[in-house]
Amino acid sequence: MKIYQQALTLRERRRGFHIITGEIEEALPQLDEINTGICQVFIQHTSASLTINENADPTVRMDFEMFFNKTVKENDPDYEHDYEGSDDMPAHLKSAILGSSVTIPIRNGRLALGTWQGIYLCEHRNRGGQRRLIITAWGE
């Protein structure tokens, strides 16, 4: 069994849903040494999240942002946690809904994503800053 782990700091991105599959693959070139395995990508933040979805049509990512903004509204007077700005508590809720990690099979040295799948960084803050990921891959 081979186990590899790499920290990756993503550059700051605007609020929205961003495909980061290529950056993850570049950060862990040892993937090509694993024929059959698993890759877990974990984000070390509570106001951004990760998910897997459509990688071809950018309107899907735009619709994700629209849906989450409608579903988890800013400036709700019932929020107690509001001292970091109107986007902070909604960012925590969106992150909890989507999750902090994704797990992808590795097959023949590559992430076994479907043809139209990509890994998204879901940036829920207006100014979230750089985001840190831990990528762990294991297998044979």
From TrEMBL:
<dbReference type="InterPro" id="IPR001602">
    <property type="entry name" value="UPF0047_YjbQ-like"/>
</dbReference>
<dbReference type="Pfam" id="PF01894">
    <property type="entry name" value="YjbQ"/>
</dbReference>
<dbReference type="InterPro" id="IPR035917">
    <property type="entry name" value="YjbQ-like_sf"/>
</dbReference>
<comment type="similarity">
    <text>Belongs to the UPF0047 family.</text>
</comment>
<protein>
    <submittedName>
        <fullName>Secondary thiamine-phosphate synthase enzyme</fullName>
    </submittedName>
</protein>
